[in-house]
Write a structure and sequence with these properties.
Elements: H1 15-31, E1 43-48, H2 53-65, E2 69-74, H3 75-78, H4 86-93, E3 99-103, H5 107-116, E4 121-125, H6 131-145, E5 152-156, H7 161-173, E6 176-180, H8 189-199, E7 206-209, H9 212-216, E8 221-224, H10 236-242, H11 250-253, E9 261-264, H12 276-280, H13 286-305
Parallel strand pairs: 1-2, 1-3, 3-4, 5-6, 5-8, 6-7, 8-9
Helix pairs in contact: 1-6, 1-13, 2-13, 4-5, 6-7, 6-13, 7-8
């Protein structure tokens, strides 16, 4: 039997595995098979503390297109960590299903699931990282530009879980990532140091800039995310004030390379981190990113469950 594999962060993959997943995602997108057999007879559980339209639907469709079936458990169904310890949920649930996708607040809950599960566990999002989004981001960039190594990408906004995984993805694939956040909202130091260390092996360059204009200079892509993530609602007013200069708008785009593309992981707060005209322009890759969640997650499920 194949060794049990989990996917909690991008670092759970080798560079070779990451590249093969992106190639497989491209193949799945080209073929668009509506009913495959790779997961025939398999059941995948989705355990979501945080609601999500894209993560949930993309995983459900990925499983169904691969011939499997899905059980969805929202927070009201399971009350993760409240009714019983996470490790007990993992031990019981993993006896019923063939893989588990968890979308949780604390990253430790995802790690606890993996530590006590008999089946592969996928991190659909935690407060620390968002590795499935990063897979879709890398696939979208490769699909658009034909390469990742040396591609200049700027991230402007909050130093959050999306940025943490994007930075690690850049480090593994050779992307030159320039980041600008308000001083009090920089990425987690441990996450950033890990990405910088990893970049040494790929030729990637990672840099933080105090000014958004400096980060986007020469960028072929500008990426942003919401200023206030789920669970931070009480900080919304303070964050709107702190982030005003980090909005992705026409003025900022003019500082980037001609024809610069725009990315956002969604949902977007139009008029805050990004303007409506910028989102609606042809240079936007935002909805390609959303679509590509399906193909990378389908490839990931098949990779983890093959032989398990």
């Amino acid at each position: 039997m194949k060794r049990l594999r989990h996917f909690l962060t991008l670092e759970d993959l080798t560079v070779g595995e990451l590249n093969r997943l992106l190639l497989e995602a491209a193949r799945l997108k080209r073929q668009r098979v509506r009913q495959g057999t790779a997961l025939a007879g398999r059941v995948v559980a989705l355990v979501f503390q945080k609601p999500s339209m894209r993560t949930r639907v993309a995983f459900e469709v990925a499983v169904l297109r691969s011939g499997g079936s899905v059980v969805y458990l929202g927070q009201d169904d399971i009350r993760l960590g409240e009714r019983e310890p996470v490790k007990d949920v993992a031990r019981a649930l993993s006896r019923y299903v063939d893989a588990i996708v968890v979308r949780t607040f604390g990253h430790g809950d995802a790690e606890a699931f993996a530590a006590h599960s008999r089946v592969p566990v996928i991190n659909g999002l935690s407060d620390a990282v968002h590795p499935c989004q990063a897979l879709a981001d890398l696939f979208t960039l490769q699909e658009t530009f034909g390469r990742l190594a040396g591609l200049p990408v700027a991230y402007v906004g909050d130093g959050n879980n999306v940025l943490h995984s994007l930075a690690m993805g850049a480090a593994m694939s050779g992307i030159h990532l320039a980041v600008s956040t308000p001083a009090g909202y920089r990425p987690d130091p441990a996450q950033w140091r890990a990405a910088v260390r990893r970049a040494a092996g790929s030729g990637a360059r990672l840099a933080w800039h105090a000014q958004p204009a400096a980060a986007v200079a020469g960028a072929r892509v500008i990426y942003t995310d919401v200023w206030t993530s789920m669970g931070q609602e009480r900080e919304a007013a303070r964050r709107r004030t702190a982030f005003q200069r980090w909005q992705v708008n026409d003025a900022l785009l003019r500082r980037a390379a001609p024809g610069c593309r725009v990315m956002h992981c969604l949902p977007a707060h139009r008029g805050e981190e990004i303007t409506d005209p910028v989102m609606e322009r042809a240079r936007s890759l935002i909805f390609e990113q959303a679509e590509n969640r399906l193909y990378v997650q389908q490839a990931l499920l098949q990779f983890l469950m093959r032989g398990s």
